[in-house]
């Protein structure tokens, strides 16, 4: 097998060298058997020739080694990215060890480079220069430290943030729901509501000196939506080799950011360095968590809703972890949402070998849905699986929505899970306040998992019955 045969402490660079030489040994033995062909039965001869030929082809192209590699590995031939779907492989590729313990800190610049290359499209699209795009260990450390400091909130800051998010969500629902022209009920589009409110909340956390825009709430919502839409379209364009984005698109995105952040000079500091990793991940996971709790986990709806409403009133770590009579907590619901719908579905690396530079991806989504780890109900949203009684080391190690050491997300322990909880709580409160609601757009009920794409559920919303 490909990665499975590796010694435990190989670095990414060594993986392929080792694999390559292993294959070469097999190739030479296959070729030497070809020399004895006349002594074989004709059928055996044909078989041996085919066998030898196939190995000769493999020896021509090191890239083919990847295509032939065994193990649970899919491939994306179109983009020439090799996708790995097992935790063991993820550990080897992301931290250069098979036990998950990253040991070789001197290799950090190689690891940063392996990530910076696939992310260079983000520099072209957004002009960013952050932890995801740099190969310089000092720059990386400074950026991650800055992000960690910004995300480290005191209890009173959590309280103000929860209030702020609740106000943003309620205000936006009210504005989306009632047309300012005719006072009639309209549809509240969830993705729109979340993109606007998550962006505005994230700006308030990441830019404490961002200043107060001299704009009405409605104007701020509308500019926030413009920013969100532009980020999405530039993101999609950056992935395409055919579309080249117009430089004017980035300029107008910066102008919109500047209106929301009058206190900083966006020509000097690109706010997208911080906005991108936070905004893109958060709004998508909150949407999935909300759809599960509101529409799919019906049996537990009331109990889940009370957990969230208590957390919104008192957004402390104690209430976040507090288990109800079922043994379920807000934290368990968030973990289960992140397990089934990790917003970073895959992390990408370009690996340097002696002869090739393959693009590889770790498929976090598949690792999170593997029945071997998560059991036969791996594809079911079941927050109770996070209760202590069901926890074990294998499950804990296979939960990697925030990546892995050494490039693990600074929001993983506290900020990420807790702000998702606050958004879910605010949304559940605001949406259910309006009495009976009609769902508009995609059907989300049933056993099939929700879609996890950026554009899924873009039309989905609710309209209150009058
Ligand atoms: C649910 C929310 C989030 C998820 C699922 C998430 C996910 C991830 C993942 C998977 C990585 C590793 C990427 C890789 O290995 O290439 C990562 C790294 C990172 N994330 Fe997050 N993230 C979230 C929220 C945030 C927020 C709010 C920020 C704040 C700015 C942030 C900042 C970062 C940074 C700076 C890194 C790079 C860490 C390093 O290189 O050492 N993330 N995140």
UniProtKB/TrEMBL annotation:
It is found in: Membrane. Keywords: Heme, Iron, Membrane, Metal-binding, Oxidoreductase, Transmembrane, Transmembrane helix. Gene3D superfamilies: Cytochrome P450. It holds the Pfam family p450. The keyword Transmembrane applies. The chain crosses the membrane at residues 45-69, 414-431. One of its GO terms (cellular component) is membrane. One of its GO terms (molecular function) is heme binding. PANTHER family: CYTOCHROME P450 FAMILY MEMBER, CYTOCHROME P450-RELATED. This is Cytochrome P450. It comes from Morchella conica CCBAS932.
């Amino acid at each position: 097998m490909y990665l499975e045969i590796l010694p435990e402490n190989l670095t990414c660079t060594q993986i392929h060298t080792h694999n390559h030489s292993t294959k070469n040994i097999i190739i030479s033995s296959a070729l030497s058997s070809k020399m004895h062909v006349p002594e074989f039965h004709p059928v055996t001869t044909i078989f041996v020739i085919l066998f030898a030929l196939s190995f000769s082809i493999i020896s021509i192209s090191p890239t083919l080694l990847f295509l032939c590699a065994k193990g649970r590995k899919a491939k994306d031939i179109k983009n020439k990215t090799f996708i790995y779907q097992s935790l063991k492989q993820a550990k080897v590729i992301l931290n250069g060890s098979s036990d998950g313990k990253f040991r070789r800190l001197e290799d950090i610049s190689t690891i940063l480079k392996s990530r910076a290359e696939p992310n260079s499209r983000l520099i072209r699209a957004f002009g960013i220069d952050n932890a995801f795009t740099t190969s310089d260990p000092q720059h990386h450390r400074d950026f991650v430290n800055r992000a960690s400091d910004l995300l480290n909130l005191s209890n009173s800051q959590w309280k103000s943030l929860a209030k702020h998010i609740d106000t943003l969500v309620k205000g936006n629902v009210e504005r989306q729901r009632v047309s300012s022209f005719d006072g009639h009920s309209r549809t509240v589009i969830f993705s729109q509501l979340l993109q606007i409110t998550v962006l505005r909340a994230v700006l308030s956390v990441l830019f404490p000196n961002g200043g107060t825009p001299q704009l009405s709430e409605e104007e701020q919502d509308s500019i926030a939506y413009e920013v969100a839409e532009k980020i999405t379209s530039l993101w999609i364009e950056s992935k395409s080799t055919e579309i080249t984005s117009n430089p004017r698109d980035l300029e107008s995105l910066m102008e919109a950011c500047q209106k929301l952040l009058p206190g900083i000079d966006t020509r000097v500091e690109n706010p997208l360095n911080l906005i991108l990793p936070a905004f893109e991940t958060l709004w998508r996971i909150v949407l999935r968590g909300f759809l599960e709790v509101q529409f799919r986990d019906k049996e537990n709806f009331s109990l889940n809703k009370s957990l969230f409403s208590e957390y919104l009133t008192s957004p402390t770590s104690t209430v976040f972890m507090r288990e109800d009579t079922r043994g379920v907590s807000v934290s368990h619901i968030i973990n289960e949402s992140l397990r089934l719908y990790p917003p970073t579905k895959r992390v990408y690396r370009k690996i340097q070998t002696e002869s090739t530079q393959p693009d590889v991806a770790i498929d976090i989504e598949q690792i999170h849905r593997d029945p071997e780890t998560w059991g036969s109900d791996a594809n079911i949203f079941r927050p109770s699986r996070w209760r202590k009684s069901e926890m074990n080391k294998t499950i804990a190690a296979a939960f990697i929505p925030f990546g892995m050491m050494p490039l693990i997300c600074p929001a993983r322990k506290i900020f990420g899970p807790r702000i998702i909880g606050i958004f879910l709580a605010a949304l559940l409160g605001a949406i259910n306040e309006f009495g009976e609601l009609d769902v508009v757009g995609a059907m989300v009920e049933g056993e099939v998992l929700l879609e996890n794409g950026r554009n899924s559920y873009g039309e989905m919303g609710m309209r209150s019955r009058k």
